[in-house]
Amino acid sequence: MNRSQTEIIEHVFETLQNHFGCFEWWLNEAPFEVMMGAILVQNTNWNNAEKALTNLAEHCSPQGIAALPLEKLAERIRPSGYYNQKALKLKALTQWYEGYNYDIALVKQVEQSLLRQELLAIKGIGGETADAILVYATHKPSFVIDAYARRILSRNGVKVPKRYDDFQQLVEQAIPRQTELYAYYHGLIVEHGQQFCRPKPKCDGCPLLPTCLGPDVAS
DNA sequence: GTCCTGTGAC
DNA sequence: GTCACAGGAC
């Protein structure tokens, strides 16, 4: 059993797809809320990020964020953690978006790798957040790599590259380059990472049990 | 090393 | 009740 990296990755996604079935993930949400969500969910779970979004209520638009004083903004997004940092990040994001007149159609016109560069230049947006915005807000095929993907794939025998971009490339070359697929597969990863493949794994009923090397494989 | 909260285990 | 832990970016 010496499968290639690509074969393992294909096998993992196929198995997860069979287990969890099809579902829509994020592709129909309002673009700016997706962008905010991508920042608010950093270093926390979606539950906390959602509380922050709920607290923002009617300010949940680029104009709303721009108009809200930094301290007020921080106060509202408190439940997501690192709220002072994240308030600055949301401001930076909004300022960048203002350059496009808050028009997602204009953003979508930018070529993918160029747009990724632009997003990465915004303070507080790293690889993962940039890719989440690319897929779920602009519908460009950029695969989101996260802690779950690292954990799940390394536990199943993938020699996971340390650098984000290298890992992303490895995953992207293993699956067809389609936005819907990227969006859905990342959803599968998140779902599985939360239900089964936690740092201290819940292996009972895990669909990947037959190929899993256990929780302690060096990634 | 720093930034922070919510949860779940004890 | 305390407290370790999960979770990205700079």
From TrEMBL:
It comes from the Bacteria. Transmembrane segments: none annotated. InterPro entries: DNA_glycosylase, HhH-GPD_domain, HhH_base_excis_C. One of its GO terms (molecular function) is metal ion binding. Keywords: 4Fe-4S, Endonuclease, Hydrolase, Iron, Iron-sulfur, Metal-binding, Nuclease. Residues 40-195 form the HhH-GPD domain. Pfam families: HhH-GPD. GO terms for biological process: base-excision repair. This is Endonuclease.
